[in-house]
Structures are given as structure tokens and as C-alpha cells.
Design brief:
alpha/beta, elongated, 33% helix, Ribosomal Protein L4, Chain: A, 15% strand
Length: 209
């Protein structure tokens, strides 16, 4: 399985990159993808929600009326959950929504997404590039050459590159990540995935560990 390497003008360079079929050619496992995306989204939650129970409400603890003889319901104090402004029963409390998944399952999820993306012709390989300084205009020129303007795209780098990252930071539909930072959510959320040539082998080795 091979992909042609493109240059920054969007033209073929004549070179090809071999893709490992155990990474890009498996039968997608939808449940593994679901679990990793669920884990990613759960980890984004702050979990700082909090409501006051009756013991935390400021108010008198005096019994509002006698227990019997009124002909209506029995009332305790004004902090009862049945009254407006009273405490809430079983309200939300601060909690951590994160949960763990096996590394092998997370690798399977990424392989599943990549295999489906390759079937949909949404994976490309681009020759390695860099910028002398952070320039968003140059990155936009690159997107135009690759016909990615207005599309969600994910660029996968072999190593951290500050100038490339800063050049893309203000583009809302473009993300730049190194090969070891990617989650299944990032892969799914991207319409097009662009691997830099040097990142392909590193990414494949990372998923085969």
C-alpha cells in the first residue's frame, strides 16, 4: 500500500511512501473508536458543577407549623427541597469524569479511523517543510495549493515545529500536531489528514509498539 508524496505546491514529487497494512488497512472497530472518543470528551469536562443541599442552605431550622391538625402536608424547616429556595435533592457534586483505557485499545481505535480515512481518500503525504518565521499568510498559501481552504485539516509533524504551529494557530479549521499527540477524536474531526513525509514511519512505529 503506497501513497504519493506531494510537494508544497500540491504537485507529485515522484516519491512514494509505503503504508503498513496493519495500521492503514484493518477492518475498522467502531466500538473501540467510540470508547476512545468518549474518553477524550470526558477528559475535557471541568466537573466543577455543584448545587447546595439542605444542610448547606442559609435559613432558619424552625419547624414551620405543627406536625398534625392543619389538614395539609407535614412541613419541616424552610430549607426543605419542597420549597422554593430550599436545598436540592441528589444534586451534582464536583467529580472527575476521566477514565482509563488500555493502550492496545487506543491504538486499535486510531488504526480503525486511519483505515476508514484511507478508504475515503482523506489521507495525504506531504514533503517536510518549515518556515523561517511564523507567517499565517504562508500557511494559507500552502492550504490553497493543497485545495484545503475552508476544509478541516490535520497536519501531522514528525517533531515539534514552533514556526509551523504558530503560523496555523489562527486558522480555525486547521490543526497541527506531532505524531505522538494525536487522539482518535483529532483524526475523526479532521476532514483531511496530511502526514509530513518524515512523520509517517514514526507514526506507524508508535502504533505498532
Amino acid at each position: 500500500m503506497e501513497l504519493v508524496v506531494l510537494n508544497t505546491s500540491g504537485k507529485e514529487t515522484g516519491r512514494k511512501v509505503t503504508l503498513d497494512e496493519t495500521v492503514f488497512g484493518i477492518e475498522p472497530n467502531q466500538h473501540a473508536v467510540y470508547l476512545e472518543v468518549k474518553q477524550y470528551l470526558a477528559a475535557q469536562r471541568q466537573g466543577t458543577h455543584k448545587s447546595k443541599e439542605r444542610s448547606e442552605i442559609t435559613g432558619s431550622t424552625r419547624k414551620l407549623k405543627k406536625q398534625k391538625g392543619s389538614g395539609s402536608a407535614r412541613y419541616g424547616d424552610i430549607k426543605s427541597p419542597t420549597f422554593k429556595g430550599g436545598g436540592r435533592v441528589f444534586g451534582p457534586k464536583p467529580r472527575d469524569y476521566r477514565f482509563k483505557l488500555n493502550k492496545s485499545l487506543k491504538r486499535l481505535a486510531k488504526k480503525s479511523v486511519l483505515s476508514q480515512k484511507l478508504k475515503d481518500n482523506s489521507v495525504r503525504v506531504l514533503e517536510s517543510f518549515s518556515f523561517d518565521a511564523p507567517k499565517t499568510k504562508e500557511f494559507i498559501t500552502l492550504l490553497d495549493a493543497l485545495t484545503l481552504t475552508g476544509k478541516k485539516s490535520l497536519f501531522v509533524l514528525p517533531e515539534s515545529n514552533k514556526n509551523v504551529y504558530l503560523s496555523s494557530r489562527n486558522l480555525p479549521k486547521t490543526r497541527v500536531l506531532t505524531y505522538n499527540e494525536i487522539s482518535s477524536y483529532d483524526l475523526i474531526n479532521a476532514g483531511e489528514i496530511i502526514f509530513l513525509e518524515d512523520a509517517v514511519e514514526k507514526f506507524q512505529e508508535n502504533l505498532k509498539k
